[in-house]
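Batch 3, record 17
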Amino acid sequence: MAKKVRLEDILKILERYDVLELEGVEIRGDFDIELTRRSAIPILLNALQQALKEQVAAQGVRVMQGVVQGGEGVPVVAQQQTTAMEATTEVEAVSAEEEKLVPAEFSAKREEWFGEIEEVTLGATRSEGGTRAKTVTIGGERALPFYNFDAPMKHPPVIAVDCFDMPIPLAKAVRVMYEDVMEDAGEWAKKNVEVFKADLVTIHLISTDPLIKDTSPREAAKTVEEVLQAVKVPIIIGGSGNPEKDPAVLEAAAEVASGERCLIASANLNMDYERIAKAAMSHGHAILSWTQLDINQQKTLNRYLLKMGVPRKSIVIDPTTAALGYGLDYAFTNIERIRISALKGDSDLAFPISCGVTNAWGAREAWMKASPIAEDSDWGPASLRGPLYEIITGLTLALAGGDMFMMMHPKAAMTVREVTRMLASADAEEGAEKESMSVKAEDWISWTGEEA
Amino acid sequence: MSGGEEEEPFPLDINPMYEGERVRKEQMFVELGGPKKPGFELVICEEEPENVSDGRVTLIGPDLSEMQEGESYAYAMIYKVYGKEVEKDLEAVLERRNHEFQSYIQGYMHLNQRADIWVRISKDAIRKGLKSLKQIAKATVMLYKSELPFIEKMEAIYITDEDEVLRRIKEAEAVYRARDEKARGLHDEDVDEFYQCTLCQSFAPTNVCVITPDRVALCGAMTWFDARASARIDPEGPNAPIPKGECIDPIGGEYTGVNEAAVRLSGGAYNSIKLHSFFEKPHTSCGCFEVAGFYIPEVDGIGWIHRGSKVTETPIGLPFSTIAASVGGGRQVEGFLGIGIQYFYSEKFIQADGGWRRVVWMPSDLKEKIIDAIPEEMRDKIATEKEARNIEELKEFLRKVNHPVVKGVIRPVDGVKITEGWGEVAEEAAAEEVAAKEVAEEAVKGAVATEKRAEEAAVSSATAEGAVERAEAVGGEAHAAEALAKPAVPATATVPASVSAGTLMIPITVDISALLPVLEALVRRAAESEGSVGGGGLKITFKDAEIRVGKVILKKSGREKKESG
Amino acid sequence: MRAKSPMDIYRLLPRTNCGECGEKTCMAFASLLLERKKNLDACPPLSEDKYASQREKIAELLAPEIREVVIGEGEKAVKIGGEDVLHRHELTFFNRTALFYDVWDTLPAEKLRERVQTITDWRKFYVGKFLRLNGVAIRSVSNDAKKFEECVKIVAEETDLPLALCSFSAKVIEAAISHVSERRPLIYAATERNWSSFIELARRYGVPVALFSPSLDKLTSLAVTFANKGVRDLVLDPGTLPTGKGLAETFAKFVKLRRAAISDGKKEVAYPLLSVPLVAWLTHKDPVEASYWEAVLACIFIIKYADIMILHGLEPHSLIVERTLVENIYTDPRKPVSVEPGLRIIGSPNENSPLFVTTNFALTYYTVESDISSSKIDSYLLVIDTGGLGVESAVAGGQLSADAVKDALERFGVEEKVKHKTMVLPGLAARISGETEDKTGWRVLVGPKDSGMIPRWMEKSWPPEWLS
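Prediction for the assembled complex:
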């Protein structure tokens, strides 16, 4: 029954019957709009579409796809009004040559989170009962790392540089930095602060390990004292990792450092964490809650600590750091998940995060002289690889939610500090700003290369 | 915890590293229980604290010093336990721990459980100073108490006198039977709380396992009782209670408490779970499920395949591994479900979808294993790879045995018919329903197409003349220019600015009069750009159009006439 | 992607189970489509007219939130974009950030060839395969069409890697593109000044085109305009600034663009993003400083949403960390990374050295191997194929079993190398120790739960009495 009827025919019919007007005409069905010309059409096509859109939008309907190009169907229920519309104003024709960019605006929604990360302050000044020159505060985030457009980052990440209570074997690139101070923990700590600009210092009491030197807790405490006297930044105190020895060592250390609000490293499920946490609490220190790449274990340990009465402002999480190439993806995702969970409202995980970035040196690419694989391209000098491995490991975890980085190589420490502070918009360092402003994003294309 | 004659420290090392230790015949001093002699282990939770004498160890029968090297003896280990938080329901859980703890003892091998226990003590252990079974009992009790702090009092009675063991073994077996029956008889309705398990969340962050009496954990490792005990032991651990709340849907198994937990634990990924439904808001899985279920649309039935099945191909053509990928990851995926093998035995096994009456296929090795779970009426109606390896064969088989899916499944739990069956008409209707459902949000065709009219009105204004004709009626350039000059719809509007070959499929009302001016201008511009008035332009074709006219107003008379073209 | 389950797709397929796609049923095909393991093109019936609208709907359901763009042809072609989520643990990231390294047209021919070769040949072995670089970006420094053309010709001869032709002048690009048009190069870049000629080029040669503007509004405008004209293989560059506030702003732009596309559903900007860590070389004069800073920028944008980046430094340390980081971030977090099973030699073991056993879960393996070798313990390490699962899971799931150990001993000819037939199982596998002894006939010692305790364990428990 398909019949083709043309407008002209209809008009003729209407004429014949002396029809003046048609009111309430409804045309139901699919209609195609076909254009047989292309040039200069798109703009008008667009206008057509805008017009359609406006009508559609006015009806609160969401349109999925675009309209009209070369014969596609637009099934709509159309209503035609036939009241005459008069031509009104004269408008000058739009020039056909001048093509314009389709105007558009960009916007992205702001993300608001329910939760907030605790703020933990390390170090105590004289008025607070300690002898530190300054305190360091981490945490307090209300948004993802460096997302200042959602909520400004209250505290930029901080760097803690390691020192040990005895000389230890180190990759060459690191050893050369510390050769002159390795025999003396105090001197070592001093260099970290004065030369390498550490925000905090971590003193690792590894000599207390029964398999290494089995130094007594009392001697360990003396070392801690030395360090406290040598530098005026907040201190992190680490045991040897030996589960039988650490509780006693950390107890002694906590005692001698009473009032200085150190970070005691660490409470973990492999040892008598209750004893360690108690010692931290009774001397006003904060406690590092350390688990191994397991978000549920982290929640569990945190809950144990909270149950024991550890104040929320005294917990820092260490979810374990794996080196670039050796599990960094696990560490990264674990931290991202912890931070996102916390921001979603999980208070068991809403604590600042510390990362043992020194672990990056465990990657063999960080220290090995050359590749053991014959077909590998040249690895270049180890002295350049190691620090970069440490930088990238640290920076990656900063982007996941790390607030504090325990690091070794000074170049790495300073670089991570620099870039994270930039991302956090923490400094208005004039020099860097001027330099940065002198560069335009498009300049790279015509850059003449290093020879210039 | 003394009370024994010896004050010496326990002579053997106790460490989880000895868990898998085997004592071989040549190394063994004596064998207790095992294939040759009767034996059993039993934990009794006493209600009254007076009934348990804390730390007491009683031995009935010969001790090690009276035993002959290389011989086998009867062996019973009975423990009486009291604690305010210890319930009778925890007996089985505590009993299983005996195996775990005793395995940790160096030189002492413990295999199996209940009345199947098989113990061997090595010569080495004797050499190291093990003199009496009472020492073993004491050490075991010590392990229990240090691991499970809610045990306040514990007493051990060991029996090596064969007659006495034989006398008591019947009682023990009765206890086991009663427990099993009770466990089977305990249902979701009977308890106030379920338990969550987040052990696997490391691998599937949005996965939330809800363990109930009628729904065992999909990894197979935990029953509701196990989870309950675990929650007692370590309330900060992975198993925490989920208070049921109100029951929203008794057939599907939906509870307000569970839904609330779902939101919380999945990070908002989903907000409700129907515990016993395959299709609607199904329970999610991590990767640990024992069995994967998959929907076979061609027969409107459900197939199952378990991890490690010898059968590699299912009738839908996918192996376990690919199905597993669709099931896991903590997502609610329509048409797929991961479960634990014990769930087959649950009386609520996918009851929302017809339970066993909806099951059409499983590999033969699985079917054999769980044949007892399948109601007799269905046993011969469920195909395996022996009867059907592809859809055609499956269809044939199901027709032959007159499987419920063929004519339509009547759900056992409430007698309601929930599927239509395969009938020719039914299939088409189903297909159409599906298509319509899919397109509902976007397409207009559904409603309009069914009112197809044969009329086709083609409006063609192939020439600028035509356009001019209508210019008087509708305006003209002005409108076009206006449209151009208007500020663009900001990109943030819900309407994308792209012009593409695409189809707008939404029922809306379009005011053509507003469009016509632009169309005018289009044609005019087209014509102008060619420098000629004729040639090229605009063609509007109405397909299958129904034109209704409300009113026709005639020139001469005032007569009104309704006309439909 | 909007499809949530194979059923969403199944409903729109022909449902005839014709098998032409290679799968037995349409359901199976739907599952594989969802997993991105098969393409819609594999279903010939779908290309028939009567299925046109279904095909379209399926394509829409399967389309990733971010458009996927292909650069290059053949084996070495790179796919960029195609992402669905903002965080890898929500699902996975799909396409690795493509790393393109630069050459420029004022380089003398010899140096040019050398540089191209270095980029093309670079490789690093990692977890069972060699990592490679993805493409060469050719910059027009001279702004001379002829020079650029010459340069591109030489590059095209020296490498089969995908190319990016970089100039703001369409004329310059045009001069060169005809020589490489079948190689589907990326042309960089259209701006608010030159866009219409770039649309021209993109259409004529059917190549993907980059759009550049530091203004997000203008960038959106460009994207919309191009898409309107049917050019949809787009890559967006909001401009990369190397330091200070500029860097923070660049960071914000990338996050916002990706968020708008994925969370807010703004299709008009749902295209792959391009970043230029190379800019580090504009503010750092010392090559080591510059290469370090470039790697720092690369790190930031590998993680925050750059789908392709243009770099300069070919220093080994930079290439290794950049390419390794991409590999780490873009592995599928749902699939545990595994290493090759086999018998490893650590140090110089002799007939009295211990044999340790572990699984082929990469994390476990690296940790164990590292703990043993850093303690300088000469030994053998037998790596069992547990499908990439760690010890605890594999013991629970049965992948690490007495039988698996037996198979591994046979498969890798261990008995020929380790005569004492004593093995050390990980502490977490204590459960299978007895059974393993029974099945293999070897003696089994149970080692510590944590491989870090191995040195301590060695002091107490090695050598066992039957070997001392």
